[in-house]
Amino acid sequence: MNELLLVVTIGGERVALLAGVVEAVVELDTLIPVPRAAAHVAGLSALRSRVLTVIDCMRSLELGITDCSDGIREAAVVELDGHHYALLVDLVEDVVEAQSNPAPLRAAMGPGWERASLGMVETETGPLLLVDVAALVGGVETKAA
Amino acid sequence: MDDLIADFVAECRDMLEALGGEIVAWEAQPDDRSRLDSIFRFVHTVKGNCGFFEFPRLEALSHAAEDALADVRAGRRQADGALVSAVLAVIDRIGEMIAAIDAGEDMPGGDDSILIAALAPGAENNAAPLATPAAEVQGKATAAPRTIRLSVELLDRVMSTVSDMVLARNELARRLRESQSDVPVDGAFERLSAIIAEMRDAITRTRMQRIENLFVALPRMVRDLSAELGKQVLVDIEGGDVELDREMIEMIRDPLTHIIRNAVDHGIELPAERLKAGKREIGILCISARQSGNQILIDIQDDGRGIDGKRLVEKAIAGGTLEKSAAAQLSPREQLALIFEAGLSTAQQVTAISGRGVGMDVVRSNVERIGGIVEVDSTPGQGTRMTLRVPLTLTIIPALTVSIGNQHFAIPRSAIDEIVRANGESVTLEQLGGAGIATIRGRRVPEVSLAGILGLESGVAEKDRTLIVLRPAGGDVYALAVDRIHDHEELVVKPAAPAVMATGLYAGTTLADDGSPILLFDPAGLAEVGGVKLETQERTARIAEGPALDTGPRTIPVLLFRGLDGARRAVGLAVVDRIEEVARDAVKTAAGQLRVQVGETILPLAGAQTAELGAEKVRLFRLNDGAHEIGYAFSEVIDFATIEHDVIHADRPGEISGVSLIDGEPAELIDAHWLFAHHVGTTARLAEPLVCRLPSDDPWMQNMLRPIVEAAGYRVVGDDSEVEADLVIASQGDSIGSDEGRTIWLRTEPEPTGKKDASIYRYDRAGLLMALKSAGRAK
Asked: What Cα–Cα distance (Å) separates residue B37 from each residue in B12, B42, B140, B525, B690?
């Protein structure tokens, strides 16, 4: 499998997203909160004339809260069911080529990671956890239901 | 016809796709009412459409499934595993057939009767294995291209690009302002701006389509329907040139079809019944569209039997959707609105066309989903008028922007009733058990704070906030307290992500002019999250209205209109029975004043001089004081309003009782009392006229006397009539059989024959009229 992976850092951990689903990597400067929405919805932002729903990946993964107070944040823009989301990450690193198919990880992970994991992939920089974008967008509640 | 079939196929496929999940969920939980309803609607729609297209197998299948599901809905039957499988098998078969119709192939083989038999109560479940899995059918279906969808998508893309352009221009404008630019650059930028604005305008227009496209299929549909039902219906279509968003046209296609079907099936009677009711054999169905502000109004009016509000109430009570105690409080309008409740139908029999009580609830939910309203108005025996009010486009909606703290939100303007300041004179705020109640001009409405609902900090003290009185579609009013209101804007609204919609508070997202996102509220959702009970509230609001009227300033609801002479006038809403449109030649000067023929009655016509009437149609209000009716001609209705300002009374009595400011402009107030006194006057025909018996074989009585008697307000009957007469007129010397009522004797000689002769000389007109009048008063 020669899929391209986008390597990002979430909560201090390097993980991989399928590069095919990521439309763009942007720097968000505005963030409009959505009162009463699920906790992992950090707010709304705009990319050109599109409204982006901003997802706090750390919340989705139950790792804590991303600190948005310092203004500009990096985010990966994905499209899911016709809606555009911006996934807040600590850092966007690089695009690498996957050297294996995702394999189940048999060690115990944190509950948030467990939910979002698609398995482990080998890359030239070592093994990375492949994270399911839909699980990040879905957040904690949807999986529980 | 091919277009229509393509539409039908596309629609069915959409519904099948949407239904995929529902079916599975229903299988797991057969008693889930909402799932059942959506499956029921699907088979109902298929049944309705294929009757029209002549797909007998489809119709038989869907009708059978509908019957079975209707039984379950009505509680006559339990949804067990066997029934679920049988229904699923039918839906799969419908899917196969639709795929075949789309591909232009022959219908797939297989015996439908097995499937239908499996639906019967107690049938063995042997049908399921025959069915192809639904997923396979859908897979095949999605492969076929749908041109209309592509083009709309493309248009959307162009539209969003243009929106991008506008934002980029705004950005550029900001940069230009910051830097010291030279005049030529500014000039070039201005030109670019103008071009972009024009382009935005044009692209919005490309989405518009004449509503004719929707109307063109209707006459044929009505013709086929009426032929099938043995009725005669004439369709009158107006306003086909009104333009409407393409997408919107698609969204109202179904509701409109449904309403028309209902009108033909239930509204218009069979020719024989119509004749018996004194109507023409041919029923008339008027469908008209017109634009009013940023709404399109579509009227569907029939002259059939009308809707019986009391029957609806009985049905609703019997069906368990309405409490008996609540039923007694319903106004006639609310009674009629019951037809929009699920599972209610006044039809005596279930027909193949409609009448199972599905339909109107679907119609309403479909129309409300696109921000529209359905209204119903009906007079038993005279007909029904349904009005669809839909916004001009789906995507651009007028909204009010408000803020809490420093965050902006938008509220759809269509839901806003009024805006008042919390510290205004006519407003008081109270807390009852922790709940907020605002009393606005004597009306008590629940009050919720937007900051409270959203859990945000409000930077403004409670009394300095602004109250927005909201009326969610189909619900009752409540007041929303916001920190500040900003601007009216036309916003391009897009659906929000599921995680945002899940809050139930928002209807979508939009971008402000500076490119930052704004959330658009769903007024009904706000109420729900805020804990406002919209349904029970309705009655308490009305109760509070009664006594409060005595203390607070009186407000009179009026209808604001423009008279034929162009004057802005208002007439009390209570006296306006309905609005009619008649041909110009129905208005004639007769018996000393203008009169108009409306249907079978002739009414005095006010508000017009012969010269002012247009060439073709005359629009008029039918005013009713409870016993008499008169017509009042006008040129256009402006709005509903209330008189809140002082009325400056006219110097002398006349048609106009005074003037007042209504909606910021002066308007003349029609004096209904004077109108009735003047136009109805002494020639009034009472609702129950007195009866006078004249000998039918006396030509003088019949030819000479009868008109005078009738002019005095009597109904004249002959000797052989069984009716009890209030007055009998006879020639002196004749013998009359009974001693009923009073008798006036007429003599042929001018002089009385003796002192005891109480008879009246037959040409003594004054004496006769006096006698007629006193006989009337004696009653």
From this structure: 16, 9, 26, 22, 55
Q: Does the pLDDT of residue B741 top 70, yes or no?
A: no
For residue B515, list chain A residues with Cβ-Cβ distance below 8 A. 46, 49
Q: What is the mean predicted confidence (pLDDT) over B215-220?
A: 84
Closest A-chain CA to B510: A51
Instruction: Mutate one of B162, B516, B522, B526 to test the A interface: name it (highest A CB count within 10 A).
Output: B516
CA–CA separation, B161 vs B410, rounded Å? 23
Q: Which pLDDT does position B159 carry in this prediction?
A: 75
For chain B, say whether A60 makes contact (Cβ under 8 Å).
no
> A53 to chain B: which residues are within 8 Å by CB?
496-497, 499-500
pLDDT in tens, B393-411: 655 677 888 988 888 899 9
Tell me the nearest-neighbour CA distance from A128 into chain B, angstroms: 28
Q: Examine the pLDDT at B353 and tell me if it is beyond 70.
A: no
Asked if B745 and B759 touch (Cβ cutoff 8 Å), the reply is yes
Please indicate whether, in this complex, the C-beta atoms of B499 and A139 are within 8 angstroms of each other: yes
Where residue A87 falls among pLDDT bands split at 50, 70, 90? very high
Go through B80-118 and write b for each residue having 16 or more CB atoms within 10 A of its CB, e for each that does not: eebbbbbbbbbbbbbbbbbbebbeeeeeeeeebeebbeb
Tokens matching residue B735: 């013998």
- Stretch A71-89: mean pLDDT: 86
Choose among B339, B469, B470, B483: nearest CA to B402: B483
DSSP notation for B562-577: E-TTS-EEEEEGGGEE
Q: Give the residues across from B227 on adjacent strands.
A: none
* pLDDT number for residue B363: 80
Q: pLDDT digit string (tens) for A48-78? A: 667 889 998 888 888 888 776 666 788 999 9
Structure tokens at B222: 């009505």
- The average confidence (pLDDT) of chain B is 76
Distant-in-sequence contacts of B624-630, Cβ < 8 A, 24+ apart? B624/B575, B624/B576, B624/B577, B625/B575, B625/B672, B625/B676, B627/B684, B627/B686, B627/B687, B628/B676, B628/B680, B628/B684, B628/B685, B629/B577, B629/B601, B629/B603, B630/B603, B630/B604, B630/B605, B630/B606, B630/B675, B630/B676, B630/B679, B630/B680
User: What's the CA gap between B143 and B536, in Å, rounded?
Assistant: 49
Asked whether the beta carbons of residue A32 and residue B407 sit closer than 8 angstroms, the reply is yes
Instruction: Give the pLDDT band (50/70/90) at residue B688.
Output: low
Per-residue pLDDT reduced to its tens digit, B698-714 = 777 877 788 778 777 77
* Whether A51 and B516 lie within 8 Å, measured CB to CB: no
Angle at B155 between CA B150 and CA B156, to 5 degrees: 95
Comparing CA positions, the residue from B556, B567, B577 lying closest to residue B640 is: B556
pLDDT in tens, B176-217: 877 876 788 888 888 888 888 888 777 777 777 788 888 888
Collect all residues with Cβ–Cβ distance below 8 Å to B85 and sequence separation of at least 6. B118, B125, B127, B128
Report strand pairing: B587-590 vs B443-449. unpaired
pLDDT at B682: 47
**How distant is the Cα of A131 from the closest Cα of chain B, in angstroms?**
19
Q: Which stretch of DSSP H or E encloses residue B390?
A: strand B383-391
Please state whether beta strands A22-28 and A50-56 pair in parallel, antiparallel, or not at all (unpaired). unpaired
Q: Two tokens at B361?
A: 């609830």
Q: Within 10 Å of residue B198's Cβ, how many Cβ atoms?
A: 10
Angstrom distance (rounded) from CA A53 to CA A41 = 7
Task: Count CB neighbours of B571 within 10 A.
Answer: 24
pLDDT band at B294 (very low <50, low <70, confident <90, very high): low
**B167: which chain A residues are within 8 Å (Cβ-Cβ)?**
48-49
Instruction: Quote the CA–CA distance of A4 and B298 in Å, as a whole number.
Output: 54
